[in-house]
Amino acid sequence: MPTLSEIAVAIYGRVDGDGAIEISHCCDITAGTAGGITYVVNESAAHHLPGCGASAVILDESTGAAGFPAVRVNNPAKAFAQALALLHPHSEPAPQIHPAAVVGEAVQMGDNIYIGPFAAVGDGAVIGDNVIIGAGVVIGRGVVMGDRVNLHPRVVLYDNTMLGNDVAIHAGTVIGSDGFGYVTENDVHTKIPQVGRTIIGDRVEIGANCAIDRGSLGDTVIGEDTKLDNLVHIAHNVKIGVGCLIAGEVGIAGSTTIGNFVTIAGQVGIISHISIGDRTVLGSKAGVTKPIAAGQFYGGFPADDQRHWLRTQSALKGLPELVRRVRSLEHAVGAENFEDKPQEQD
To answer: DSSP states of 78-98 as a string?
Structure first.
């Protein structure tokens, strides 16, 4: 087991206290156990420490350690993530092609590849080094992927999908399915063939059960370092920049452009053919119906400046009392003095 001093070196921290103690695992601050290391994000969260059963704590330079051996760092949350990776490493399967897997013709494979049972790799696919292809994964014809890609069970990559390096895609996600495109004439819906590609950049992580459509003519693109939660739908020809964070149940309609480092909270819906500027934040359940400039914080439906939307919601709560007061004033003055008085319904 590593010592606290060894962990401090790995997470770029400074030991405060006994660095010789051994640490076996990471633990929650409310359920700490001996041998564990936990973390405190700031002084306001430190009240949990006195009753914590952990052996050590990760915190910043200004937060009290309550007598615990500590590692002092600039960013406790990031350092704790690094400690988790150190103390709880993922076990990866040994390289092999399972006998129950099916590999097509003219497939180019790098070194140290794992292909699990009942996976299928289409003709002409190109697979980089140190790739993990889980059970039941389907890789279409002409798919190209970089190094250290991890495809969890039942991922489907349609033909000609492109993945960069260090991409992780979780179970049940479908990449490159047809976009929702139809021409309607005389009540008959004629499908528009979807012939573009889906391109996923380096270090993108995509959650479980997402659906990312291929482009209709051009490409659907997700920029490097962008992270998607579960149950996200990206429609055809959408362009997403680098470093974006997209939470669960978000839907982005076709041909919309999302800038760099945009944060989209859960259940946000964005209409087609608009642009969202860099470093914009969209609050939960926002319904975006128009373009948004860079650096904005929008919420509500239709989405508006978050502060203005919150003020509007606060004012609406007072509307019943305002109606009551107006009726009272009308009664006091005399309803006959109010011409074109609207009819109000309860």
So the answer is: HHHHHHHHHHSPPP-PPSEE-
Longest dimension (CA), the chain: 89
Residue type for position 345: Q
Give the tokens for residue 127: 């697979």
Query: What digits encode the pLDDT tens for the residues 211-270?
Result: 999 999 999 999 999 999 999 999 999 999 999 999 999 999 999 999 999 999 999 999
Direct distance between the N- and C-terminal alpha carbons of the chain, in angstroms, rounded to an integer: 70
Alpha-carbon gap, residue 271 to 291, rounded angstroms: 9
Neighbours of 82 (CB within 10 A): 17
User: Element (H or E) spanning 311, and its range?
Assistant: helix 306-317
Query: Which residues, in sequence order, are CB contacts of 333 under 8 Å at separation 6+?
Result: none
**pLDDT tens-digit map of 174-225:** 999 999 999 999 999 999 999 999 999 999 999 999 999 999 999 999 999 9
Q: What pLDDT, in 10s, does the model give residues 27-77? A: 999 888 999 999 998 888 888 898 899 999 999 999 999 999 999 999 999
CATH code for residues 4-87:
3.40.1390.10
d(CA 33, CA 37): 8
Distance CA(26)–CA(50), nearest Å, equals 17
The H or E element containing residue 109 is strand 108-109
Counting every residue, how long is the chain? 346
pTM of the model: 0.88
Hey, what are 264's tokens? 């989209």
Pairing, β 168-169 against β 205-206 = parallel
Backbone angles phi, psi at 327, to 5 degrees: -60, -40
Angle subtended at Cα 34 by Cα 28 and Cα 38, rounded to the nearest 5 degrees: 30
**Residue 267 and residue 248: Cα distance in Å, rounded?**
6
Q: Which CATH architecture has domain 155-302?
A: 3 Solenoid (2.160)
Looking at the annotation, which residues are catalytic? 236
Question: What is the 8-class DSSP label of residue 310?
Answer: H
Rounded CA-CA distance 198/53 in Å is 48
Cβ atoms of 54 and 23 closer than 8 Å? no
Strands 227-228 and 245-246, bridge-based pairing = parallel
